[in-house]
Amino acid sequence: MSEIRADTAVEPIAEIRLERVNADKTRLDTGSETAYHVYFELSGHPPPEWRSIFERERKATNPTYEADIDGAFLVLHCQLDEVAATALPVLKTIIAATNDAYRQYAQKEAMALGHRQDVWKQERKDVDAMSQSLHFD
Length: 137
What we know:
Elements: E1 18-21, E2 27-28, E3 35-42, H1 48-61, E4 66-70, E5 73-79, H2 80-133
Antiparallel strand pairs: 1-3, 2-3, 3-5, 4-5
């Protein structure tokens, strides 16, 4: 078994939250008269696995809303009059579910990493014991 690398650990993050709408970035979708790209600022840059979980949760919870993660922004594609009444509550639910699922994923990965490290340490002990038991004349 090779040495366990530190970069194999899951990136720990605080829960991702919606902070505010970025009115400067929010704009009318090209070619549409009613649909907007509504930019919500997130509390941080979610790691790739969080983004994957978010997409899965979005599709399972409410596939009618298209939303993408763009750096530290969540970009919602909808009409402006839908944001407050329906979209924001749905997004909050999806983000809460994503945070829960990511937390479980991170805990599972941390346990797996700990196990791999334990196996690697035992392997090193076994190799050291073998090497010390040899006598060369």
